[in-house]
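Late entry, flavin-adenine dinucleotide complex.
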Amino acid sequence: MNTLKRIDPRRPFIITADGLRRITLGATGVAGSADFAAAGSAGHHREQAKPRRTSATPQRVLLVAAHADRGALDDHARQTLAAAALIADTTTEVVLLVFGEFTGEAAALGMLGVDKLIELPMFDRRKFAPIDELNALAACVAAYAPVHIFLPDNATGDGDLGRRYAAAANASVATHVVEIDATHVAAYVRANTAFAARSLPEVVLLAPNAVDPKLPFVGAGERVVWRVDGEPVSSKGAVRDLGIEEIDAAQLALEEADFIVSAGNGVSDVPAFERLASTLGAAIGASRVAVDDGKFTRDKQIGATGKTVEASVYIAFGISGAVQHLQGIKDCRHVIAVNLDASAPIAKRANLTVIADAQETIAALNEAASAARTARGTGAALLNSTAPAEGALA
Ligand SMILES: Cc1cc2nc3c(=O)[nH]c(=O)nc-3n(C[C@H](O)[C@H](O)[C@H](O)COP(=O)(O)OP(=O)(O)OC[C@H]3O[C@@H](n4cnc5c(N)ncnc54)[C@H](O)[C@@H]3O)c2cc1C
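Prediction complete; structure with ligand written out below:
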């Protein structure tokens, strides 16, 4: 029961190294018309060192633009890169333009299919500089003349930048793209009641999880030193960044929360749990049993009949991990389970399982938080302290 995978029957094809694929109840469907340059090298790639994708002198460019997330690329940006790399042929270079500081090695980016990396460390995802970013993207397009530009269609800067660029350059654009190959893109339209396809436009804004980021090849992974010419205009008053307003994590809709602590039947000390959530700045979630018991309101329930969440970090205290609950956390990045039972199904889903009593762990984390606060004179940054869950966040 617990290993049963739930499939969205209306799920589109996913671009993978082996072509367009759709997995339906254990069988893999292949899109008839898919024809990928990458597919030829796919068959036995997993056992061998990965070959370089480009084998001839590059003649055209695919540009991928994305904001860095704390010095790295998030899953969505990696999928967008993979889309470009899978579509590229042997004479096409994949150039990545990163807005913000990128602390990884360029060679590691080669593993993600990047041939050239251009880093623009003067930008920051947390600062609103749409005009400067647009100018930088336009300058990069002018320098490299890419045939297509790919951005993750997210709400944290890239989606907005792609739309601005397409409008400014009068370029063809497809948004919320859920299916893509070398010749076409497709997206749900009319409130998800219809599926529309078109030829590959100049600007592709890719929805999350439309691409399998595992690649059978590597890119050249070269870092390019590149300057944006001209004065920044945002600082001259065209746009004013009013900063980011911090709000109480409890006010945040669970679907938007990046950090969630969640309580199940194994949590008995609810006030201590709520104190921990507030100290960590995490939103509160709960299993159905905890909600049915009256410990939490119904809007906190996560799962098949509750909310579906996409947090970067999800800590499940005393939650068994029933299939209905797992359905609600399928898109979470790091799952940490605290459970007395090492064989609970949540342990299979979790990246880190702490076999311990929930109350004791919560108390220890609260204690570590106040020790860290005293040491630093601040209420923040428990994540750098000696909390048991530290390893999973590295
Ligand atoms: C149609 C349908 C829809 C459903 N929808 C949902 C849904 O949306 N969301 C949802 O969550 N469930 C849903 N359920 C219920 C689901 O099947 C499970 O019953 C529920 O998720 C179990 O909640 P739990 O893990 O908190 O409790 P339990 O199953 O009781 O598990 C408690 C866990 O806590 C551990 N534990 C106990 N004491 C401690 C302790 N002191 N310290 C650490 N660990 C401890 C135990 O080892 C156990 O793993 C649905 C069920 C059905 C039939």
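Confidence is low (pLDDT under 50) at residues 32-47, 379-394. Will revisit in the morning.
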